[in-house]
Amino acid sequence: MRICLVLEGSYPYVHGGVSTWMHQYITEMREHEFVLWIIGANQEQSGKYVYDLPDNVIEVQEVFLDQVVERVGPTVPIHLSDREQEAIRQLVFCDQPDWSVLFDLFQTGKISPIEFLSSKEFFIAIQDLCANEFGQFSMANVFHTIRSILFPLLNLLSSPIPKADLYHSISTGYGGILATMGSDRHSTPLILTEHGIYTREREEELLRAQWVLPTMRGLWIRFFYLLSDAIYQRADKVTSLFTNAKNIQIEMGCSQERCVVIPNGIDYEKFTKLPLKSENGWVDIGAVVRLAPIKDIKTMLYAFYELALQRPNVRLHILGGVDDPDYAQECYQLAEKMQLGDRLIFAGRVMVQEYLKQIDFTLLTSLSEGLPLSVLESMAARRPCVTTDVGCCRELLEGKCDDDLGRAGLCVPPTAVNELVEAMKQLVDQENLRIKMGQVAAERVAHTYRFSQMIHQYRSLYKGVVG
Amino acid sequence: MAGIGFELRKIYNQEGILSKQRAYAYAGIVYMGPMLLGMMLTVGVVLLSVWARFSISERDYLLSTLTYSMIFSLLITTLFSQIITRFVADSLFENKLDQILPSYYGSSALMLVLGVPIYLLYLFFASRNFGEGLLCIILFGELCLVWNGITYLTAIKYYRKIIQGFVIAILLTMTLGSVSIFIGDSNALLFSVCVGYGAMLFWMLQLMQDYFPSAGTISFEFLKLFDQFGDLAKVGIYLFVGLFAHIVLNWFGPIGRSQNGFFHTAPVYDVPAMLAFLSTLVSTLNFIMSVEISFYPRFRTYFDLFNHEGSIGDIQQAEQRLLDVLANELKYVFWKQLLATIFFMFVGGVLLTYVPIGFNNQMNGYFLTLCLAYGIFAIGNVYLLMLLYFADYANTKKIARIFAMLSVILSLVLQFLDTTFLGYGFLIASLVLFLMSSRQLSDYTSDLQYHFLGSQKLVARTSVGWFEKKLQLLEKDERHES
Predict the structure, then answer these.
(1) Residue A240, beta-bridge partner list
(2) Measured distance CA(B207)–CA(B162) in Å, rounded
(3) CB contact under 8 A, A135 and B312
(4) Whether A120 and B450 lie within 8 Å, measured CB to CB
(5) Closest chain B C-alpha to A277 CA, distance in angstroms
(6) Termini Cα distance of chain A
(7) For residues B282 and B287, what is the distance between their CA atoms, to the nearest angstrom?
(8) Concatenated DSSP letters for A295-360?
(9) In Å, how far from its chain's centre is CA A105?
(10) Any residues with CB less than 8 A from the CB of B476 and at least 6 apart, and which?
């Protein structure tokens, strides 16, 4: 089968949990051919992959949020039908437009994004929006915001669609809408896999973002809900990594019968063979994270600083590349001010499997997660974890309701420095607890989170939707 | 987790995606002034020549040399005037005063480089003697620089000072001319005109140097605007062609007369045309005043709402006020022009029979036709200038082109019909100009919010135009040499 995987801002451009998962997934599914339809932030990324693509990737089609699709041939006056006008109005209102009409409009090249966003038809919809919902707001701000919101989207909708027997998107958002378009235009099945809840993550970012006018935050957030809704309504199957995520998807409008939980899995045997760290006088804590704001590295640094003041025998190893250079710089500066010397190590990207040999337990302070592979790997290697209570972390460490294996680590609220310190102190001080929790962790992964189990479930899913 | 939310900030902040419209406050209201000045001086010279008892052929010859110098110079400056207006307006808006005077020197130099060789060639065949040819070419050069200077001074609203310059030129020409006619040399009167315009040029240069800082440099930066505002430059050229085609074509038609082989004129048409043209002053002056006093403040308020925090309600309210003012002002301009035209047609015709220039029935017929034509043109022109004010260059260009084409084609066709109908070509062209421009202004203002906000370009222009490329090459060469 020829499967089109739609990826946004992840594989194969950057390292990370989703990228690693995707690479292993494609490599394992040898019986299928894959087309990668990948969305990058800007055209400078073109062709710069950090992975060697497996042989069964037969085509890669890149699209970028900053690319501009120009009209081919001369400009002609625009005449829109009533259905097209209505779809445009609803798009501007972020209110469940008839996506098929919009796909048709931009795929046939009847109108280019640039022409559309400077057209009277678009402006009439904006005036309507201002009159109905933004009567007290600056009209120019609403206009420019909607233009900025729609410009990347419409360029994506105007890009060519790779052919496939099935479209499988690895997120909602821009990726989700492309997959929806591919499925709609070629009348083929559509699958959505969410590793986190994309819309909620965008919402959190937007609420903190400085670049958005405070009065326009609501519009941006509405837009991302609109994109999610498009694929939630049309996908044949929607998978999530854990039960809570599935509940959120249902809450956001996805029908229950199409939602399935398929947890991530790892190569258990590879990690469980790793020996426990031999005694060297230190308790070494590992954090397998990219340097990105969503990983909340600053909270991690503050917590470790507190711990280091109270326990002289601890070291923190931060294992992962730089995702956001500005944020990374801020973290380095903060670490320098703490003057922890060799006790705080930014090791960069490493072979996790090898490095884990030097680690006693691991730490994750993310503000948002799905089902983090780094936690699974640590657990399989019999290293307990201290994590924030995000995504699937509590379920991983404490087990589902039908799981009585026990605790595989400690879970604390996000950004709670004191709770993090206390949790780490417990594992630093009690070697027996570390060993016991490590054993529970390995057993839980062996039982529920094996890579082979996950692949089997996806194979069945593909068979089910293609029939 | 996959996603590129943070990247949106970078795209959002990129320059060009949200390109902002710049204020454009100075429309092309300059090209009537030079014509007016030329006419007043011509009337003055005619009066002097009558006083000095020049023969009719000598008088006509002198008038021909003046008219040709004026039309040649206007043709050359028209190529630049709209772009220069825009350049000066932009420089003033951006407070880059130091680049204004160098651009005057640059544009003036280009006008002379383009115009002098062509006019010299013409004079080589047309002039009766070297002295006369020399005076003609000097006059041509002075006129180019004066017309160009008026563009600069109009942009800084030195209307009063320009008029003072007009008065200086006329007084000096008349005084020197009065003395010169006793000398008896046929070139003396032409020399007086040269001195008059020379004094005006000197006066204007002084004004410009007082206002604009100068490092004594020359600059051709303004040429870049030809890439961006090519339409604007063409509007000036088309209007010029439309305004003068009917006059020039008649010189070579059945009522035209040859002066010494090369200079052609048609005094029986030229004099009524010149006098009828004076009636347009009413709407032109009225327009300048109403734009400055009544319209601009409303326009500015409206425009600011788009750049600041104006809600749709604020904008709709300001738009209504703006359109009310516009409708009122256009109504006043229309009525004033109508009264002026009626006054000129009935009273002017009677009065002119008493002026010693041989006003006859044929001339009276042309005068009535042209009064009506110029009256209609004047109102159409006000609509056209409003379109320029709103920066609707593409449609203004389209209308001006149709006006020019009609004026040329119809005037040409009429040469083969009864001479009574001469002037009807310009009349019809003016009528079409009026109808089209009023219709376009009505269409444009019915969608003002779209034109101000909705139609803004989404992606900045990144290509380099022909003029900009040439300038870059020039600058590269200069750096290489230095």
Answers:
(1) A261
(2) 9
(3) yes
(4) yes
(5) 30
(6) 12
(7) 8
(8) G-HHHHHHHHHHHHHH-TTEEEEEE--BS-HHHHHHHHHHHHHHT-GGGEEEEES--HHHHGGG-S
(9) 30
(10) none
> What string of pLDDT tens digits covers the 467 residues of chain A?
999 999 998 899 988 778 989 999 999 999 999 999 999 988 888 989 999 999 999 999 999 988 887 766 666 667 889 999 999 999 999 989 999 999 999 999 888 888 899 899 999 999 999 999 999 999 999 999 999 899 999 999 999 999 999 999 999 999 999 999 999 999 999 999 998 888 988 888 888 888 888 888 999 999 999 999 999 999 999 999 988 899 999 999 999 999 999 998 998 999 999 999 988 999 999 999 999 998 999 999 999 999 999 999 999 999 998 888 999 999 999 999 999 889 999 999 999 999 999 999 999 999 888 888 899 999 999 999 999 999 889 999 999 878 889 999 999 999 999 999 999 999 999 999 999 999 999 999 999 999 999 999 999 999 999 87
Tokens of A435: 């060993």
Using DSSP bridges, classify how beta strands A237-240 and A259-261 pair: parallel, antiparallel or unpaired.
parallel
Please answer whether residues B101 and B153 qualify as being in contact, where contact means their C-beta atoms are separated by less than 8 angstroms.
Answer: no
How many Å separate Cα A82 from the centre of its chain?
37
Cβ atoms of A375 and A441 closer than 8 Å: no
Whether residue B224 contacts residue B106, with contact meaning beta carbons closer than 8 Å, is answered with no
Q: Do B11 and A41 touch (CB under 8 A)?
A: yes
Chain A contact for B11 (CB, 8 A cutoff): yes
> What's the CA gap between B85 and B88, in Å, rounded?
5
H or E segment to which residue A287 belongs: strand A283-288
- Tell me: ipTM over 0.90: no
Segment holding B183, helix H or strand E: helix B159-183
What 3-state DSSP class applies to A193?
strand
Distance CA A285, CA A383 (A): 10
Q: Is the peptide bond before B102 cis (omega within 30 degrees of 0)?
A: no
B462 touches chain A (CB under 8 A): no
* Gap between the Cα atoms of B134 and B125, Å rounded: 13
pTM, to two decimals: 0.75
